[in-house]
Amino acid sequence: MALKDAAKALMAVLNAGKEYVAVMKLHDDVPASRVKEVMAEFVGPIYQRPPVRASVKRRLRVRTIYELEVLEVEGRYVLFRVACEAGTYVRKLCVDVGNALGCGAHMQELRRTRVGAFSEADAITLHELSEAVFVWREFGDEKAIRRVVRPVEHMLAFLPRIVIRDSAVDAICHGAQLAAPGVLKLHTGIEPGDMVLITTLKGEAVALAEALVSSREMMAMRKGLVARTLRVLMKPGTYPRMWSSSGEVVKGP
Amino acid sequence: MKDLRPPWAVKRQLLVKAEGETDPRYGYKPEERPLDEYLRLGVVNLDKPPGPTSHEVTTWVKRILGVEKAGHGGTLGAS
Q1: Nearest in space to B46 (alpha carbons), one of A11, A132, A2
Q2: Residue A202 burial by CB count (10 A; 0-12/13-18/19+): exposed, middle or buried?
Q3: What is the number of other CB atoms lying within 10 angstroms of the CB of residue A74?
Q4: Between helices A126-139 and B54-65, what is the axis angle to 10°?
Q5: Beta-strand relationship, A18-26 and A183-187
Q6: pLDDT by residue (tens digit) across A75-85?
Q7: A4 in contact with B at a CB cutoff of 8 Å?
Q8: C-alpha span between A178 and A34 (Å, rounded)
Q9: Which of A116, A231, B26, B47 could form a disulfide with A16 if both were Cys (CB 3.0 to 4.6 A apart)?
Q10: Contacts of A148 in chain B (CB under 8 A)
């Protein structure tokens, strides 16, 4: 859950990969080895038509299954873990596996165990949250609340980053696109179209952006645009304004 | 062949394109923000109890923390 301004960063999470643990029920007896064999073929890009009751248009689309691991087979029940791209329907995956096996199958249970950088293992209960707030309100001790509430950067840690100069920060906060001279550091493996996180040298999130060029090109470029700002996360004015409306760089303070 | 590792498992290196310094007078390291700002830019990885909807739980969290705005990015866990 994202508080106040951090809610602006949720669009990144919707696009993030997910991990689920699910139970699939087969409609006939199939040897476990056969189930594993067929499910292994679903790793990689797969075609999926969203189910009848879906909130998106029902056209065939490609989704990537990163990992598909059969954890246990008991009778007709198959317990498995799947790591997949955002927008993958696990219910549909079960039906498709059933069709591939020739016996039919459906999803019996589903539990999401990871979204982007957040995993089930380090989730906080409502009780822990209210206790931390109590300790802070009553005794002024911030330690517990800082443990249960995390900086928005933590939620975005799964995104590739571009670290920029102080002098480029305020222009981005006003919605400008990122140009090559503002870039100080960048992650490997960025491809055009990828969502990236723009941060300061202190590690603060400035904005979510779409990379316009690859990491390789970004390293070599001396001028030109490298990323298109999608969502500004930092308040304008946090860093000094080093630019004028005519696009000229203003002398620093 | 496309990389089949889930995005969270991809190990990336940080390349240095240019050297630079940051002025300590502006901004804060995320962990060192004053509490009001820390909460304004805060997220909770909440273990949603089964039963209430994400929307209801969001309302409770807003009340517990005394913030007027919060959003959820889908459930993670029992739903």
Answers
A1: A2
A2: middle
A3: 9
A4: 10
A5: unpaired
A6: 999 999 999 99
A7: yes
A8: 51
A9: A116
A10: 44
On chain B, the residues whose CB falls within 8 A of the CB of A133 are 64-65
User: What is the value of pTM for the model shown?
Assistant: 0.85
Element (H, E) at B54: helix B54-65
Question: Which DSSP string do the residues of A162-198 spell out, in sequence order?
Answer: EEE-HHHHHHHHTTPPEEGGGEEEEETT--TT-EEEE
The string of pLDDT tens digits covering residues A169-221 is 999 999 999 999 999 999 999 999 999 999 999 999 999 999 999 999 999 99
Contact B26 A7 (CB under 8 A): no
Place of tokens 């189910």: A51
Calpha distance A246→A249 (Å, rounded):
9
* Interface confidence (ipTM) of the complex: 0.84
Please say whether the beta carbons of A194 and A213 come within 8 A.
Answer: no
CA closest to B42 among chain A residues: A151
A221 C-beta neighbours (distance < 10 Å), count? 16
Q: Report helix, strand or coil for A130.
A: helix
Residue type (1 letter), A75: G
Q: Could you count the other beta carbons within 10 Å of the beta carbon of residue A200?
A: 27
